[in-house]
Structure prediction request, 472 residues.
Amino acid sequence: MKLLSEDFLLKTEVAKTLFHNYAKEMPIIDFHCHLNPVEIYENKNYTNITRIWLNEGSYGDHYKWRLMRANGVPEELITGDGDDYEKFLAWAGTIEKALGNPLYEWSHLELKRFFHIDEVFNRQTAPAIWEKANKLLQTDDFKPRSLIRNSNVKAVCTTDDPASDLHFHVEIARDEAENGFKVLPALRPDKLLHIQNDEFGDYLEELGTISGVKIHNLSDIVKAMHQRFEFFTSMGGALSDHSLETFYYEEADTVVIDGIIAKGIQNSSLTALEINQYLTAIMIELMKLNNEFDWTMQFHINSTRNVNRPMFKKIGADTGYDMMGTQADIVDSMQKLYSAAADGNFIPKTIFYSLNQNDWLQLATLMQSFQGNGVQRLQLGAGWWFNDTAEYMHKQLEVFAQQSLLPNFVGMLTDSRSFLSYPRHEYFRRVLCNFFGELVEQGRVEDNVEMLGKLIQNISYNNAHDYFGFFK
Prediction:
């Protein structure tokens, strides 16, 4: 079979019909990504394919960087200041050995869909691909806004600190009609959660300045964050995102929490219990705010980041030195958190993601215990990060279908820093169509293409459109 044929990943005739007739042309809502709003605003052409595909300075695709290190590529040609063409050739040499890895398929799919390059990418073909791609990259169609628009994207949600003034979102919004898509902020309060960091006090001062609230205690933090939710909402924001590498639910009264905050501001040493008491209190307040503003709260749990300490010190975070987390009881703490929210009647719309597949069945059964007040308010998120493979996409669909109502699923997201990542939605849709095609072949669901086609279109786009409410 030809590499990335029109029917790749589609094993049945029903799957082929569902993809080509129903899924393929649906628009995209990219409700969680790490695209830089500055790049969308500036809308500049990239110098060459290395800059858009591998790295632009220290900012780039750590999925690829991990594979290049495994292939013995020196760091100079990964995150360093090596020659861009040599970096491209190093990636070509790496991709030759990536058979079975989703990056092999994604990379070829990106070359095919964006650059119309329909040949195997390797060290022999790399020089010609370099020349063709670089010529195209200098055209208007390869500026960031064109790449988004031409990928049929209707909304992009970036990842933004609560203390951001969202200046570039304001500027981009002026051109929304011309762009043909929305660029919306999603609030990610990592710095607010990390009370143990030396910069915590400085961050509260920064948050206080932009919100107009002098922050000394939990009540002040809530007032400041309420103002930020109001501001983000005014800019079209409707989601928050929360990274919980570990989480232990520990309740404490307000007096205790205020004392912990005071210690954090002063950079005093905090115990593990105090950190978890603070984190629990903050998560409860953030759940209340998400519910009040009718936002969707995303939880990314059970990752372990920056495990290579020397490289973290040398080149920083988000550079490919992370792994799956192994906190076995993390969902137990999530259950306690949602029980507290149920007691207070402030459960927000929620999407749960875990990097550890062992959590998926627990999360799916957890969410079913707290459903209500609308259609599928709680969701099991798409396969995330290291689970972003055909096999684990299928597994996530299977768990969702078996424990809840998969036709209500809000679908795929890129979680990417690259403007070339939108074919991941096509990849997911192929897996989705194949999933239902197999159920038909096994006689487990009705062989009704029209019914299934509507379901596929809903998961591909319509559900996200209705769930997030970006286009009210």
Summary: The mean pLDDT is 97. The chain has 21 helices and eleven strands. The longest strand covers residues 153-160.
